[in-house]
Amino acid sequence: MENKLNKLSKSISLMACYGLLAFASCESTAQEHVSTENLTVTEVALAKDGQETNPNLKKIITDTTLAVESVPEIPVAGKAFKSGYTVSAKDKHNKARADFVITVTYPVEKTADGYKTETVDITTNEEGIAVFKPENVYKTSMYTTITFAPSAQENASLAKLCEQKSVSAKFMVSYDFVNNKGIHLIDMVDYDEKGKMVLNAPITTSSNLLVQVWKTSGVQYCAQNFDCHDAVDANNPKQVYDTVQKLIMGSKRFKDITYGKVEYVNPIEKVEDGYSLTLKTTVYVLNLETGKIVHEMTKTATVVTKNQWEALKACQIELSKKITDELICVF
Fold this sequence. Notes:
- By secondary structure, this protein is of the alpha+beta class.
- The protein has helices at 2-32, 41-46, 50-62, 159-164, 205-217, 229-233, 237-248, 311-327; strands at 65-70, 85-90, 101-111, 114-123, 129-132, 142-150, 167-173, 183-190, 222-224, 254-271, 274-287, 293-305.
- It is 31% helix and 33% strand.
- The protein is globular, with a radius of gyration of 31 Å.
């Protein structure tokens, strides 16, 4: 009788044990398949079950669109940013994406090969907005890009997707003209409609560019129409450097020369609203200490004026404005 009771007791214990295991197994299975549909992006990313949550995070990133809504005022080198970059995140229904983690890649300093960058994560608020204000006070001018991308949450498999969904904006810090009194030379060579170099013209792109730089910087430390037209026409940086060095006799007061060829894209044309003209140029900034090209930009400007004789001057001014916007951040 006692043996039967013992066997019955063992059977009940085993059944209880199997029941607990079965319950635990069911509970575990239920946890593994909990829907993440109502979770925030952060909660999905931090969930323990990576295999189940990764597909959801991937879908969220795929269905999200980032946009740079505003950029800060360009600070002068040595001064802090007064405001930040505002970025929005929206889902495929154009609704705000809250708690969305965005990785910001931004420059921290200028190097001989370009720019050294760092990354930081920011998170959107309930309106799907995140703001990044650079903390660095930059000692030199900067002209590069800042990038905003969905965070891969340390998941290498999502890195490419995040890169594809990224957005960028210009990152600029203006040259400190007040505390840097070196002379910047300008020699923009103009050409006529037939591609012939124009000499001794009363109005030139160089003179217009000089005026725009003065207006923007407030300091007159540039010289225009520097006489190395032939070297610029030949598009030979070494020839430009050698010509300038002979003319300035090795003076260290001259920092660089900005030069380029300004050419017609097409002759002045009669259009419905007046006369249209498009000019183009590739501009180079050559450092007079090293003899190297430190910056290159290509610009195009189109204007429509009421009178034909106004078109050239108006287009030179418009082109000069576009050059200046970038130039003051690379001196």
